[in-house]
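To the wet lab folks,

You asked to see what we're planning to order before we commit. Fair enough. Below is the target structure as tokens, and below that is the sequence we designed to fit it. If anything looks off to you, flag it before the synthesis order goes out.
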């Protein structure tokens, strides 16, 4: 029995028609509907449109990451700037307490100056704690520990520690405090105020990326002096 060439050709046509024409048919459980999708993906890869789509996607991801990184950098810079500025103010107000006249007749002025110092202390301890520079926050921890070690003496003049590390001052208690106790806390190289000034100089230095002096705070030129913070502190006490 023989099969004609035309019959064989017709048979192939039927097979192709059956494969491509029946989208819902399957071979071995695999849906042939996916074949058109695969061909479409292949065409996209071949003509470069798929690569362009990926490049656009990753470019968008990089832009989001860069924006996030920039935002974090600005936030860190703002925190360090706040720590630097507040340390500047705390250093000045703490240092100024050394030259006061601690007498009963001058108690109103003493209270005013100490109140200003407490305000600057609170601003510094708060901003330094939030700083992204580990050395700055570490100095804030040291300062908090030093303050806590003297909380009884501070409380005797109306200065108390709060849960957030800040200080509060009671005017009535302060003005009734012993002059000798006030001098112990705020006058001399071993006083509480002197310790705060020292920590303030360290916080300022670390917040300004390792700048080693606070002398520029007073020279009015914006440049750094060769006098370091420790010798400057000793010269005013």
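Sequence we intend to order:
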């Amino acid at each position: 029995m023989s099969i004609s060439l035309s019959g064989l050709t017709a048979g192939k046509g039927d097979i192709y028609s059956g494969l491509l024409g029946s989208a819902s048919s399957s071979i071995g459980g695999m849906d042939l509907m996916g074949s058109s999708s695969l061909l479409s993906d292949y065409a996209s890869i071949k003509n470069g449109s798929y690569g362009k789509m990926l490049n656009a996607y990753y470019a968008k991801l990089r832009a989001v990451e860069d924006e996030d990184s920039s935002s974090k950098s600005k936030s860190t810079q703002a925190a360090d700037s706040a720590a630097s500025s507040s340390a500047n103010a705390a250093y000045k107000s703490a240092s100024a307490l050394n030259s006061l006249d601690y007498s009963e007749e001058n108690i109103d002025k003493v209270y005013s100056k100490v109140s200003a110092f407490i305000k600057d202390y609170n601003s510094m301890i708060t901003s330094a704690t939030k700083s992204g520079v580990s050395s700055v926050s570490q100095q804030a921890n040291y300062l908090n520990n030093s303050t806590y070690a003297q909380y009884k003496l501070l409380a005797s003049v109306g200065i108390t520690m709060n849960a957030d590390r800040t200080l509060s001052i009671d005017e009535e208690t302060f003005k009734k405090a012993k002059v000798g106790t006030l001098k112990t806390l705020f006058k001399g190289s071993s006083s509480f105020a002197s310790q705060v000034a020292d920590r303030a100089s360290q916080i300022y230095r670390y917040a300004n990326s390792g700048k080693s002096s606070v002398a520029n705070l007073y020279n009015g030129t914006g440049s750094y002096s060769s006098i370091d913070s420790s010798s400057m502190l000793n010269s005013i006490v």
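Structural context that might help your review: The radius of gyration is 38 Å. The longest strand covers residues 159-161.

Thanks,
Computational group
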